[in-house]
Every structure is written in C-alpha cells, then in structure tokens.
Amino acid sequence: MNSDPVFLRKEIAARKGEKKPDFDLDDKSQYFALKRIFDIVISFIFIVAVLSWLAPIIALLIIIDSGGPVFFFQKRVGKRGSVFICYKFRTMILNSDADRLQALPHDKRITFIGNILRRSNLDELPQFFNVLMGDMSIVGPRPHMHADHTRFSSLIKGYDFRSLVRPGITGLAQVRGFSGPAPDIERIFGRYQWDAFYLRNANFLLDLRIIRKTITQQIIFWFKTLYNCFFYKPADPA
User: What does the alpha-carbon distance between residue 90 and residue 118 come to, in Å, rounded to a whole number?
Assistant: First the structure.
C-alpha cells in the first residue's frame, strides 16, 4: 500500500465522488456461517480457559492502581451501523471525554496499569464476550465509537462499507500496523484501505492468517518486554 501523504490526499479527493463499493454478502454466506461457528467455539474456550483466571488478576491490578470500576462500557458502531455496547478493561481515569476524544500517546487520562493493558492489547480481552453474544467477530474491522465513525465518514466517501460485517477484536489493518488512534488523515485512510481490502477478499484462511499474525505479534511484544525488564542493561555514558 502506498503511504505517501500526497498520494493519499489525491486518493481521498478522488473518493469524494466515488460510489459505495460493491459487495455481495450472499456470495459469502457459507464463509460467514463457518466464521460464526468458529467465533462461538473459540470465544467460549478462551473465556473458560483464559479469562476465568486472567480477568480477576487484571481486575485486582486496576483496583489497586486507580480504584473505581474494572470494566469500561462504550457504545460502538457495529454491523450495518447498529449500536452495541463494547466491553473493555478500564484503562483511564473516569472522565467525561471518553466517548468523544481518542486516547493519544502520553494521554494524562491513562493510568499506569491502563498503559500496560493498552500496549499489550489486554484491555480488549473482554470483547470475547461481545463475540460470544454476536455483536463482534474475532476478525474484522475494529469498531469505532460514534464520534470517530462520524468524523471518518465525513472524510472518506463510502466509509460505511467497512460496517457491512461484524467488527472484530483484531483485523487486517491492525496486523499491518494501523492499530490504536488515528490522529491524521493518512492513518485514517490507510486503515480504511486495509479494511476495504479485507472485506473484498474475506475468507476463512485469511482470518486464520490474521489470527496467527496477531498471536505472533503478541508473543514478540511480551518477549521484548520481559527481555528489557530482566536482561537489558543500558550502555554506560561515555
């Protein structure tokens, strides 16, 4: 994907008059049926085998660190523009801007434990309950809060195209480096390009590749984190 800012601006300008991309869900009915079965089975296993013991540990750390509620509930845009309540571990102090402003690097609202949860994506794990309930899928475009969805849709014609399927815990855009906030037009459009590519090419093998890539990235993250904590020694100043 070309990430040159001038190229991206030209593409966005061209898309202002572009019709919504064609996408026939009926052509992929068997894929979506298999995908839903996979989501139910994997999310149930993950909740029982992992969240059953990990969630209490994270909850205790959140309470010790900042007090207040353990979970954060936010309205997000789901399939075909529907509204659902997205579950996350709370990573910020309680604030009135949580549903309006994206979290940015070094955001003062983010707590100490919240920063660790965000960097490791552990704050997203309660969304396996969203998957089990049918609001989300394991793989798909990330769900936006309404303020972001409205802003992004005003910038890119046909942006709602990415809402034709269930949003995901992870997605192609995320494993390609477009995770976290999208503070500028280049990152907004770059994320949209990968989401649109995923929808047009969605299949079960692609989903498995995205899951494998996500797990690999998490393993690398934790390996680097533990190495820096226990083995890394900064060079002595000259």
Answer: 10
Domain membership flag for residue 37: yes
Q: Which residue's structure tokens are 């030209």?
A: 10
Please give the structure tokens belonging to residue 148: 């972001």
CA distances to 27, 182, 216, 237 from 142, in Å: 23, 12, 19, 44
For helices 112-120 and 52-66, give the axis angle rounded to 10 degrees.
150
Residue indicated by tokens 């707590």: 111
Instruction: For residue 120, give every residue at least 6 positions away whose Cβ sits within 8 Å of its Cβ, in sequence order, or none.
Output: 218, 221, 222, 225
Q: Which residue has the tokens 């434990």?
A: 113
**Contact yes or no for 191/182 (Cβ under 8 A):** yes
Has residue 5 been placed in a domain?
no
Residue 142 within any structural domain of the chain = yes
Q: How far apart are CA 143 and CA 146, in angstroms?
A: 9
Distances (CA, A) of 9 to 155, 190, 193: 11, 11, 13
pLDDT per position as a tens digit, 17-32: 444 455 566 678 899 9
Can you give the residue range of the structural domain that contains 186? 28-223
User: What total number of domains does the chain contain?
Assistant: 1
Task: Measure the CA–CA gap between 92 and 74, rounded to whole angstroms.
Answer: 13
Residues (pLDDT < 70) of the chain are: 1-26, 232-238
Is residue 230 a part of any domain in this protein?
no
Q: Which pLDDT score is estimated for 94?
A: 86
